[in-house]
Specification:
Protein name: Squalene synthase HpnC
Largest sheet: none
CATH topology of the largest domain: Farnesyl Diphosphate Synthase
Distance between the termini: 25 Å
Number of helices: 14
Number of strands: 0
Structural class: mainly alpha
Order of helices and strands: HHHHHHHHHHHHHH
InterPro entries: HSQ_synthase_HpnC, Isoprenoid_synthase_dom_sf, Squ/phyt_synthse, Trans_IPPS_bact-type
GO molecular function: geranylgeranyl diphosphate synthase activity
Length: 272
């Protein structure tokens, strides 16, 4: 199974320890469904927020050991079993919901601090939930996991500029736009210029630095877990390489990972 948000990166793959696959899958469907509530269809922002409030109540209900409402049984019945089996940290799941709520009304981010605050809730909880399942609790691992997850989120933003801009969604910090002389109206019109390419290059460097700072975690985690994380890290870096090979012209084209990339990803994972 692959994640729609980060379709380059495996979830519950063959490398995931089999005993943990049901928990990883349950967490994925919890996040996938919440994101669809926040982002898909033609509901008003007010209706989306109301639905996310109801979704949160079902989450809290199953966390307390109670039955969910019938509306999202397919999500919360499996998740309830994982709460019992693995004692999932409720605040991490609630943090994801707060990020999805933010998506219903915020379309611009003034600076990198604002983007990082979003990533802290939209991406980092996923890594911390996985470390919880693996029994990893030390601060260094948590910090490196946050770096990897934030980098993955940023990579997805830069990879998806051609998709997000027509939807009036811009995650590039406005301060970064100003620093390289890119006007937001031109960016939203997807005008490819030397300045827009310099902007994308700046953001790619930011994401790469974060990914490399977290990458040592993949070499410390044992067995299948470590190998899966190696592939996740290399998948993210591969997308950045593709953006660079496109000379940072991603305002109208979306780079993807395909089967042809598999040998390079496996080799890079092996030599980390």
């Amino acid at each position: 199974m692959s994640v729609d948000h980060y379709e380059n990166f495996p979830v519950a793959s063959v490398l995931c320890p089999p005993a943990l696959r049901p928990a990883v899958t349950a967490i994925y469907w919890f996040a996938r469904t919440a994101d669809d509530i926040a982002d898909e269809g033609d509901a008003t922002p007010e209706q989306r927020l109301a639905d996310l409030d109801a979704y949160r109540e079902d989450l809290r209900s199953v966390a307390r050991g109670h039955a969910p409402t019938p509306r999202w049984e397919g999500v919360f019945v499996p998740l309830a079993a994982m709460f019992r089996r693995h004692h999932l940290p409720l605040p991490l799941l609630e943090a994801l919901l707060s990020a999805f709520e933010q998506d219903t009304h915020q379309r611009r981010y003034p600076d990198r601090a604002a983007v990082l605050d979003y990533c802290k809730r939209s991406a980092n909880p996923v890594g911390r939930l996985l470390l919880h399942l693996y029994g990893v609790r030390d601060l260094e691992s948590l910090t490196q996991s946050d770096a990897i997850c934030t980098a993955l989120q940023l990579i997805n933003f830069w990879q998806d500029l051609s998709v997000d801009l027509p939807r009036d969604r811009l995650y590039v910090p406005l301060l970064d736009c100003a620093e390289v002389g890119v006007g937001v109206p031109d960016l939203m019109r997807q005008r490819d210029t030397g300045a827009t390419r310099a902007l994308v290059e700046k953001e790619v460097c930011w994401a790469r630095e974060l990914m490399l700072s977290g990458a040592p975690l993949a070499t410390r985690l044992p067995g299948r877990t470590g190998w899966e994380l190696r592939l996740v890290v290399q998948g993210g870096l591969r997308i950045l390489d593709k953006i660079e090979a496109m000379e940072f012209e991603v305002l109208r084209r979306r780079p993807k990972i395909g089967i042809a990339d598999a040998p390079a990803l496996l080799w890079r994972a092996m030599v980390m």
